[in-house]
């Protein structure tokens, strides 16, 4: 019976990591949506208005980012737009990894090392996903496999 909680904890951590990697490219729209929603709520829009404004701001951010990625001709412009989506994903990867590692590694140096590795992994995954999404939407682009 003591092995079951351990297996459930490992499964929960793996599921949360999978969720983090899957949703990492939406960190920037989420951040902008939450910021706009909080601002709308503080200016008197109420809960329904804040949720609507936040969802609208997140959707506009996601659509604008995709449009910029697909319409930008210069590779450096595409890289700059992709980095706007990758940077918040890497930051969230750092803090998510640090939250997990904080409970398992006693040394702060190892916590920092694993957190940086997590940030690189999540940021790299977000970069690949953002570039695959833009390649799939471009005329003549190859759709992502898998």
TrEMBL record:
<feature type="transmembrane region" description="Helical">
    <location>
        <begin position="109"/>
        <end position="128"/>
    </location>
</feature>
<protein>
    <recommendedName>
        <fullName>DUF4175 domain-containing protein</fullName>
    </recommendedName>
</protein>
<keyword id="KW-0472">Membrane</keyword>
<feature type="transmembrane region" description="Helical">
    <location>
        <begin position="76"/>
        <end position="97"/>
    </location>
</feature>
<feature type="transmembrane region" description="Helical">
    <location>
        <begin position="7"/>
        <end position="40"/>
    </location>
</feature>
<keyword id="KW-0812">Transmembrane</keyword>
<feature type="transmembrane region" description="Helical">
    <location>
        <begin position="46"/>
        <end position="69"/>
    </location>
</feature>
<keyword id="KW-1133">Transmembrane helix</keyword>
